[in-house]
UniProtKB/TrEMBL annotation:
Residues 1-21 form the signal peptide. It comes from Sheuella amnicola. Keywords: Signal. InterPro entries: BUG (IPR005064), Bug_dom1 (IPR042100). Belongs to the UPF0065 (bug) family. This is Tripartite tricarboxylate transporter substrate binding protein.
């Protein structure tokens, strides 16, 4: 019996030593960075901005892979089911982490239990926009037109439950206007259809539309946060435009599968905070319209949990639910 116990103890020590050594040598192969939406949208833009400096910090290649569909649920579920070794990470959004568990009756992952949060990377205003050339220049004109033409105003989104979906739903509730929702597999597809006149409008996360606004292809009506956006300082807020108290924003972060070793989560967090501390990178990040966030994995965990309550209550108050 004593010999058996010694053997088992030796095996346990060897296993622990191997695991520790593997973590010390991590990463030893490329990392897959899953974006659960189509290429070209804000999540894709952020992932590609981060992939090169993150790979340089960690000493490996970071491969961005778009897994769009089901309002971000397909890509999110893939990461939730992945091996918890740190080689697969997810660009997490307020939609797939804090909205979808309330919006969908049958969600195939648990945003709280199935992920290990790494870091928050953004906090974005959205911007209500129409195609350039429209006679609508102000929020009041937008509301008046929607009331006079209750079947004419549609809005696109990155999918059900996305910020681009819930923000117009909040506008509808506060103003009483009628607007038809057209969900896409990613924000970039919806933006293209606004510019092509296939849909009337959109409330897009600023990163996805700012180049088209600055290029004169989209007309901004108002930003959705309580303060004006530094990247679009001449665009008024919803509050300034006649909707008192309106304050809606989107956030993003990075998560790995639950069970990923804390040492690997810490390596990611350290590398990403160092990236955000770089002045040149900060300029590039702020240019897409986001605040520079960063912080600890514990901070991001608390955000996901608190936003699950806040955004879940918003979904319920709007009366939005899907099978």
């Amino acid at each position: 019996m004593k010999i058996f116990n010694k053997i088992m103890l030796g095996m346990a020590i060897a296993t622990a030593t191997f695991a520790s050594g593997a973590q010390d040598n991590w990463p030893s192969k490329p990392i897959n960075f899953i974006v659960p939406y189509a290429p070209g949208g804000p999540t894709d833009i952020m992932a590609r901005l981060l992939s090169v400096p993150l790979g340089q910090k960690l000493g490996t290649t970071v491969i961005v892979e778009n897994k769009a569909g089901a309002s971000g649920n397909i890509g999110s579920a893939q990461v939730a089911r992945s091996k918890p070794d740190g080689y697969t990470i997810l660009l997490a959004t307020s939609g797939n982490m804090s909205v979808n568990q309330t919006l969908f009756k049958n969600l195939n992952y648990d945003p709280i239990k199935d992920f290990a949060p790494i870091i928050q990377i953004s906090k974005f205003p959205l911007v209500l926009e129409v195609k350039t050339g429209s006679d609508i220049k102000t929020l009041q004109q937008f509301i008046d037109y929607a009331k006079a033409n209750p079947t004419a105003v549609s809005f696109g989104s990155a999918g059900n439950g996305s910020p681009q979906h819930l923000c117009p739903e909040l506008i509808k509730k506060m103003t009483g206007v009628s607007m038809q929702h057209v969900p896409y597999k990613g924000a970039s597809l919806a933006v293209n259809d606004v510019m092509g006149s296939q849909i009337f409008s959109m409330c897009d996360i600023m990163a996805g539309s700012i180049k088209y606004i600055q290029g004169g292809q989209l007309q901004p009506i108002a930003v959705t946060t309580k303060n004006r956006a530094p990247a679009l300082p001449d665009v008024p807020t919803m509050n300034e435009s006649g909707l008192p108290g309106f304050d809606y924003y989107a956030w993003h972060g990075i998560v790995a599968a639950a069970g990923t070793p804390p040492a690997i989560i810490a390596k990611y967090n350290k590398a990403l905070n160092e990236i955000f501390a770089d002045p040149e990178f900060r300029k590039r990040w702020e240019a897409i319209g986001s605040e520079v966030i960063g912080g600890s994995s514990e901070d991001f965990t608390k955000l996901i949990q608190s936003e699950s309550v806040r955004l879940g209550e918003l979904v319920k108050s709007l009366g939005v639910q899907l099978d």
